[in-house]
Amino acid sequence: MSEQESRALKNRALNRVGSFQLAGEAQGSALVLSQALSFWGGLDIETGDIIDHSHPGLGQNVAAKILVMASGRGSSSSSSVLAEAIRRGTAPAGIILQRADPILAVGAIVAEFLYDVSMPLVVCDISGIVSGDRIAIGLGEDAQAIVSRIQPAIGPAAPRRR
Q1: What is the DSSP letter of 53?
Q2: What's the CA gap between 114 and 73, in Å, rounded?
């Protein structure tokens, strides 16, 4: 594949409709994991680093990223680890899964309830998303999740007013 073909493939549009396990909006660089990650024993909540020595993502950092994987990988304690990482600011900005995961959903919901910090959790087709893509998670019609690839900003981003 030529460099031009590769660039064209990477820049193709990505617009997916999915469902929220926890609604919200987020943007960030995608970190696509080829295997499910257990947050319990797999994530350092102080840094956001993947610390599971048997995981191919060992050493990568999830903080402020859009974490993309097929599903979570238990244990039920992963929910408390995710909630604490959200509280500390070392969690992903959002998580996109191929299959719903009630354990990760509980962690995100608890963090929103206890700490008033929201991290969207989306279920949709993850094919075609590659690490490094700039991904936006948004709220569509009928409360559907909209996942899209966004172009990198040129120059400094303007502040967002609420």
Answers
A1: T
A2: 24
Alpha-carbon 75 to chain mean position: 19
33-92 tens-digit pLDDT: 999 999 999 999 999 999 999 999 999 999 999 999 999 987 899 999 999 999 999 999
Q: Inform me whether the pLDDT recorded for 143 exceeds 60.
A: yes
Among 34, 54, 71, 75, the one annotated catalytic: 75
Alpha helices in 71-162 (DSSP H): 78-88, 102-115
Distance between CA atoms of 10 and 5, rounded to whole angstroms? 9
**Residue 6 among the catalytic residues:** no
Q: How many other CB atoms are there within 10 angstroms of residue 121's CB atom?
A: 29
- Tokens 């993502």, residue located: 57
